[in-house]
Every structure is written in C-alpha cells, then in structure tokens.
C-alpha cells in the first residue's frame, strides 16, 4: 500500500482548501445536508403526531391526553440523536453529487497537462448520490447496534466501515470520469488496500466536531490526486492518462 502517496495526496488537498470551488461545494453540501435532516425530523415528528391518538386509556393511569405530545417530542429527539451519526454520511453523499467541481479544481492546478475528462451526466450523478446515501445511512444505522454491543471497539468499527465506504465511492466517482464505470471498478479492486487506507484517513477526523464537516471536500480532492498518481504509471496499471 502506498502510504507515502496517500499522505502526499492528503496534504496537497489540504493545501487547496482556500480554493473558491472547494468553498462552494462545502457550503452546498452542508446546507443541503442540514435542510434534508431538518426536513426529515419535521416530517417524522408530524407523522408520529398524526398516527398517535389525542388521548388513550392506560391501566393505573387511566385516560392520558399527553401521550401524543410525549411521542412527538421523543421522535424529534430520536432523529436529532441519530443525526449526530448521520450528518457526516449525509453530507458526504450530497457532496459527492458536486465532486466534479472539486476534481476539476484539483486537476486544473496539479494536472493541467491532462485533457478534459468526460463529465458525468447530472441524472447519473444524482442516481449514484442516492445509492451512496442509502448505503452510507443504512450501514451506519446497523453499525450503531455494533457500537453498543462492542463498545470498546466502536471507534475502530466507525473508522473501518466509513473508511471503506468513503474510499470506495470517492475513488469510483473520480475514476469514471476518465475510464468509465467498468474500468473504474477494476482499478478499485486492484488498489483496494490503498483505497481503504486512504478512506480510513478520511474517516478518522469524522469523529472530531467541526473538522468532520470539511472531510467530504478533502476526500474528493485526496482521491483525485490518488487516482491520477496511481494510474499514471503504465507498467503497474496498464492505464494511459489519455484513456477515456
């Protein structure tokens, strides 16, 4: 695994954080993620209130008229609690829809000699984003159970799981712009160890408040560097940088 290459790619990504295109994607990703989570919280709370009767008879307590309010508030706090775990996966998935802007910013600065890649159609990018969001949210919801059962190893499970998912998705999304989906999957399998390690490097700061909000941008930029550095060595990969 190319440990030195991973850290070089990461540091180059950090050095470009002031790029206006990075900031635009950052605010879009965070804004849309917050809007989605707030909307889901409001919708779930409304649904809970609608399906809960205004009053109910309970043994010992008799007629209870405050149960719907209790459940509504409980539902809101439950979703807010889950949001602490889901905010970053949701932001990562939404940011992936704007990955092309980050990748182009990196390529314009560090790989200006390359031709323009094939842009991914918006519909296809949206479909990939929805799929990625579903996988991220589902996997992290399941992982919450593992966190409770295997509490001492919870942080390592979190890093490993999200590292694998982030690395897999970001590498694929960068690669399909240049080599297409089938070849991107082949290259992902070939470099799975390096990709997982790089993804884990992205996942570790996810447990640090505020810092974790910038990770989707750093991830996209890091994997843009990593893809080009790995695939521009023909004798190792059989890939040419001008291959579309």
Which strand order does the major sheet show? Answer: 1-2
Secondary structural class = mainly alpha
User: For the terminal residues, how far apart are their CA atoms?
Assistant: 26 Å
How many helical stretches?
9
- Can you summarize the main beta sheet? 2 strands, antiparallel
Spans of at least 5 consecutive residues with low confidence: 234-244
Mean pLDDT: 77
Shape: globular
**Domain tally:** 1
Helix fraction, binned, reads over 70%
C-alpha Rg, in Å? Answer: 21 Å
Percent strand equals under 5%
Instruction: Spell out the helices and strands N to C.
Output: HHEEHHHHHHH
Question: How would you portray this structure in words?
Answer:
The chain has a two-stranded antiparallel sheet. The protein is mostly helical. The longest helix is centred in the C-terminal third of the chain and has 37 residues, at 154-190. 75% of the residues lie in helices and 2% in strands. A hairpin with a 3-residue loop joins strand 1 (56-58) and strand 2 (62-64). It has one domain (3-32, 88-237). Mean pLDDT is 77; it is low at 234-244. It is globular, with a radius of gyration of 21 Å. It is built from nine helices and two strands; from the N terminus they run H-H-E-E-H-H-H-H-H-H-H. The two termini are 26 Å apart. It has helices spanning 3-14, 20-51, 67-96, 99-110, 122-149, 154-190, 192-203, 215-231, 234-237, and strands at residues 56-58, 62-64. Helix 6 runs antiparallel to helix 7.
